[in-house]
Amino acid sequence: MSTNTPVTVTVTGAAGKIAYSLLFRLASGLVFGPGTPVRLRLLDIPSAVVAAEGVAMEIEDCALPLVDSIEITDDVTAAFDGANAAFLVGARPRGKGMERADLLTANGAIFREQGRAINDHAAADIRVVVVGNPANTNAYIAHRHAPDVPAGRFTALMRLDHNRALSQLATRLGARVSELDGVVVWGNHSATQFPDVTYLTRGGEPVTAGLDPEWLADTFIPRVAGRGAEIIAVRGSSSAASAAGAAVDQMRDWVRGTSGESWTTVALPSGGEYGTVPDVVTGLPCRSRGGEWEVVEGLEIGEFQRARIDASVAELVSERDAVRALGLAD
Ligand SMILES: NC(=O)C1=CN([C@@H]2O[C@H](COP(=O)(O)OP(=O)(O)OC[C@H]3O[C@@H](n4cnc5c(N)ncnc54)[C@H](O)[C@@H]3O)[C@@H](O)[C@H]2O)C=CC1
Ligand SMILES: O=C([O-])CC(=O)C(=O)O
């Protein structure tokens, strides 16, 4: 029997595809551990509340021992009241041929309202993972509307890009993912992102010198950066189970810590680290210590990296400026 205090976890877009994978993993203890019950809060828009109720019924039917309660709502305030963790998934997904910039206007208003509700109603230890696209800029908007919440409590999901990079590298090297470390994906969760293998190790030994630079530039980087679009083209629908898996990985590592000196990729409001622009939400190499993300310090950045990081951060700045112009950032 579990004895810990339950955690209250809010999932928005609860009737959608990603939530359908995410909720069951949360309810199974994969994030908060096998001793911590979860109070699930499912938020969706009024027209989707009935479908969210159906998802809740299925969670009930799993008879999962860690589920303390399930509440379904279309009320943003109620959804975040006392929340310790929030997965902001609900948004309009990108269809064929659409770029993330097209989603800024549609989704910005959602994240402004949710940022305000988190600021006013969530628990003091709230941790936020923004999944809905354009994830980095949505996280920036939510953060801007939550001035009482430390900036580092707002993250966007780039763990999926990180996991995609690890998997491509493992295949190329004939390695297991668990042998690899030192990957980071800088910048935006978009086609401009920079999956960087400069610090890659296998079993603790550097391996980057053994990777063909042409393969890295012409195959690896575009493959990882374009994987979301590739999945849409092949599957006819955007990534769902892999996105949910990455969101679980990110929140689990945040709450329970990363292992040893290993790091992962988290998109955080920048403090200007590695020449990035302060306050934009960019992918950075991070370790989780004592329940907080810490940006890894002291990595050397070469010319090729500099140009790639700067290009993706420039896109984030232009998204930030666009939402500022739309009045969504203040
Ligand atoms: N950051 C990442 O790595 C990834 C992000 N995504 C993004 O995640 C988002 C969700 O994807 P799916 O679950 O596949 O979409 P979906 O369309 O299946 O579900 C979205 C859900 O959000 C709900 N929703 C819309 N507006 C809402 C609001 N204001 N409040 C609460 N709920 C609201 C919809 O009613 C729907 O139930 C999309 O923006 C997608 O682009 C998808 C894959 C990876
Ligand atoms: O590309 C999309 O629209 C969905 C997404 O973010 C991804 O799969 O990385």
UniProtKB/TrEMBL annotation:
Domain Lactate/malate dehydrogenase N-terminal: 8-147
Top-level taxon of origin: Bacteria
GO terms for MF: L-malate dehydrogenase (NAD+) activity
Protein family according to the UniProt entry: Belongs to the LDH/MDH superfamily. MDH type 2 family.
Keywords noted in UniProt: NAD, Oxidoreductase, Tricarboxylic acid cycle
Residues bound to substrate: 94, 100, 133, 164
Active site positions: 189
Name of the protein this chain belongs to: Malate dehydrogenase
This enzyme's EC code(s): 1.1.1.37
Annotated binding of NAD(+), by residue: 13-19, 44, 107, 114, 131-133
Lactate/malate dehydrogenase C-terminal domain sequence ranges: 159-322
Role of this protein: Catalyzes the reversible oxidation of malate to oxaloacetate.
GO biological process terms on file: malate metabolic process; tricarboxylic acid cycle
Species for this entry: Dietzia lutea
InterPro entries to which the protein is assigned, alphabetical: L-lactate/malate_DH, Lactate/malate_DH_C, Lactate/malate_DH_N, Lactate_DH/Glyco_Ohase_4_C, Malate_DH_type2, NAD(P)-bd_dom_sf
Reaction equation(s) it catalyzes: (S)-malate + NAD(+) = oxaloacetate + NADH + H(+)
NCBIfam families to which the protein is assigned, alphabetical: MalateDH-SF1, PRK05442.1
PANTHER family the UniProt entry points to: MALATE DEHYDROGENASE
Organism placement in taxonomy: Bacteria, Bacillati, Actinomycetota, Actinomycetes, Mycobacteriales
Spans traversing the lipid bilayer: none
UniProt keyword Transferase, yes or no: no
